Q: What sequence folds into this?
């Protein structure tokens, strides 16, 4: 089969790999029909995530058709169209039984923190991902779900990570009616978080970014008030000015490890790899929240030290909430929102790229060329 293969930072290519095989009775093999490049894939591409091994295949957002199932699989049949959450989880451990699928204790040797994630380094279990023609899906009776007949594949693939994660970020904010919500980052996750804030009762939604085309998308897709932080000496001071000197009730950080805005922090984290990620957006979030407010963290960071203003958060009495999204827990409500027309996930897709051109796709997304917000991959000439 054809698959994206990692050869080192900034070096990926399409190569021939063996079609994955059933390794456990609960496995399924899925023929991928749509996959996506996620903003957090760029952290792998740039060499930010530890234990990303040469030969790995990335991709944790994908949908497809069941090709083969193991002898213990009861709820999936070959030929079924399925959407696969980015979390790999057993469904029965302490954490899964509480709906914390992203923290499953049985799928990752490093499970003191995160559970398993497709195509996201050996830190997250070492599973190959879906930027390929076929992918092995463990615990096939637990994770994947049939794509509803009324749902398009393009909407479905967006529901495997980006849309649930943005929605989850708004949930973590515990938004009250009339609250002022600030979202740092106008990528797909931040855009969904902003739109979801309205669904949860926000009275004002503000999005901060430095790319004008993404801010325009925040205005049209999420109906948000927008500010370009490059136009202000201090974006935190500006946010305080426009919130009566108090700050926001809820701040959602949807940027992560490669945040720009502070040259020293960006170089130390993204270039010299001295931190688990540039904490610029996270520190802005802490500074922008009102006292006793809530900061919701969605951005991905590596597992080493980052210079976060934890003392300021403590002195302000902030509530900090964060996790990888337990995707399947979000699906019932999100399916309702999509079916009722409140959310149209595929509106975020700006580029559709054949798998064989994936290197160009990563270059496009990494360098924010051609107004790229979200790229979809089409394996098998689909």
A:
């Amino acid at each position: 089969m054809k698959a994206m293969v990692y050869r080192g930072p900034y070096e990926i290519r399409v190569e021939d790999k063996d079609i994955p095989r059933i390794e456990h009775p609960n496995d399924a093999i899925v023929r991928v029909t749509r996959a996506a490049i996620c903003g957090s894939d760029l952290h792998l591409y740039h060499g930010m995530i530890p234990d990303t091994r040469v030969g790995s295949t990335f991709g944790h957002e994908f949908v497809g058709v069941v090709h083969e199932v193991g002898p213990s699989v009861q709820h999936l049949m070959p030929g079924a169209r399925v959407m696969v959450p980015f979390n790999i989880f057993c469904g029965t451990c302490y954490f899964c039984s509480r709906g914390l699928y992203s923290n499953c204790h049985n799928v990752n040797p490093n499970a003191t923190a995160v559970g398993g994630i497709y195509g996201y380094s050996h830190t997250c279990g070492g599973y190959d991902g879906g930027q390929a023609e076929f992918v092995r899906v463990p615990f096939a009776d637990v994770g994947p779900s049939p794509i509803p007949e009324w749902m398009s594949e393009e909407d479905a693939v967006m529901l495997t990570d980006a849309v649930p994660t943005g929605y989850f970020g708004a949930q973590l904010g515990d938004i009250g009616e009339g609250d002022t919500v600030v979202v740092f980052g106008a990528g797909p996750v931040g855009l969904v978080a902003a739109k979801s804030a309205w669904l949860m009762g926000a009275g004002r939604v503000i999005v901060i970014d430095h790319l004008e085309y993404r801010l325009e998308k925040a205005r049209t897709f999420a109906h948000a008030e927008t500010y370009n932080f490059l136009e202000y000496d201090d974006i935190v001071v500006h946010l305080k000015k426009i919130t009566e000197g108090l700050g926001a009730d809820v701040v959602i950080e949807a940027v992560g490890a490669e945040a720009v805005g502070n040259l020293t922090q960006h170089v130390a984290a993204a270039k010299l790899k001295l931190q688990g990620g540039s904490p610029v957006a996270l520190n802005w979030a802490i500074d922008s929240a009102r006292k006793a407010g809530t900061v919701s963290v969605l951005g991905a960071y590596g597992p080493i030290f980052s210079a976060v203003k934890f003392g300021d958060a403590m002195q302000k009495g902030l509530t900090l909430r964060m996790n990888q999204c337990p995707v399947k827990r979000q699906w019932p409500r999100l399916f309702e929102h999509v079916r009722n027309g409140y959310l149209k996930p595929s509106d975020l897709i700006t580029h559709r790229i054949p798998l064989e051109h994936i290197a160009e796709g990563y270059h496009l997304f990494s360098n924010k060329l051609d107004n790229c917000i979200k790229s979809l991959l089409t394996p098998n000439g689909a």
Q: What stands out?
A: The chain has two domains: 2-161+326-381, 166-322. Residues 2-161+326-381 form a domain with the Quinone Oxidoreductase; Chain A, domain 1 fold (CATH 3.90.180.10). Confidence is low (pLDDT under 50) at residues 263-269, 272-276. The two ends are 15 Å apart (CA to CA).
